[in-house]
Amino acid sequence: MYNTYSQEVKKAKIIAIKKSIHYQSLKRFDVLCIGNKDKLIFPVESGSEDIRYYVYIMCSNNPEIMVFRPSLSEFQHFSRYIELMESKGAHKAGVAKIIPPSEWTPRRKSYDENDIMSLKIPNPIYQDVQGDEGMYQQFRRGKKTMTVRKFKNLAESEEYKTPEHTDYKDLERIYWENIVCHTPIYGADVTGSLTDKDVKAWNMNRLDTILDVMNDTTIEGVNTPYLYFGMWKSTFAWHTEDMDLYSLNYVHVGYPKTWYAIPPQYGQIFEKLLDQIYPAETSSCPAYVRHKTIVLSPEILKKHSIPFNTITQEPGEFIVTFPFGYHAGFNQGYNIAEAINFATPRWVEYGKKTIYCRCFGEPININMDIFVRRIQPDKYPLWLKRNDIGPRLEYHDKRDGSGKRSVKKRKCSLNENDNDKILKLVLYRIHPYKIVNDLD
Prior knowledge:
The protein is α+β, with helices and mostly antiparallel strands. Helix content is 21%, strand content 24%.
């Protein structure tokens, strides 16, 4: 597809009498010669004479998911440990795994005790996946309330149980080969926690992060934990968290989860791919991915050169997702997980830039005023005037004191062997539908 777009743009540039299809190509992309090779580029800002572009250069520099094994002492301070992880670059991959110290136990009782088995799942859902060739959408149908015991019996029955497999890679292959076959049930978004109340470290009921300033406001699943009851092939579609927050996920018991994660710096590249694959859906809602219906296979990401990582979350392990880190995955069999959102000062810049979906009424919305006032007091006056909303942090854009984009004209040179995987900024002066000859 990359070569196809490149040829379309070249043709659109030289054709004398342009049609609407040519203008559409030129609006979305351009071609720049880098290292004696034509490279496809696309605009990330429009509406001004000076337009910034990201150069579409795919190299070998992809942040890998980090795995952390804190000591019992390190594990006592949640926010401090997240800060430590980010100081080592954990956020660059979009997710990270934490294996807690062996001395840490979230629940002393068995997970088969009646307090769990009698718990009701109010809105279990059938997940009907439709599509082909690695590009799917997930449609949800509600099912009657059931107890965890009934859900567990279903998940372990012949009809729904995990198929025979040799290893995780084999199970992943079976998942994608059968994704549209046989509808699984997912017991998602159940209010509650299975962590003992006297557990101090990494207790989702009290993580002590900056979201605690919202103590007078409860947003279920955001600042209170949710439980998730999974079975084989139950899926969480591609998404980022509400308000682009962090999230913490723990598998209490059962089968592992398989995760796919896209580094945040490539999030906008991924969004542009979704615009191409699901044009009707993404044009109808600017935040369509928040519908949590898009299921794309790893093969599609590879085909379109979207960097991603895969990781398996075993029972007893945590996964942290970072702001603007797109992720998706599936459950390998019956399991129980617990999850919550949280925030650090680094999140505030993301929260200010969140794009909302209003297709199902009022979206989850956190008033950012209090966070900007406390974390970024120097920006608060501009924020109140809504002049302090810039691009996400991955793009290292600079603004002047007025909050407006500050642009300096300069010569730019790019080499084919630049290590930036995609994000090599070029300042480019462009006139609509004209061939660009010079870099300013």
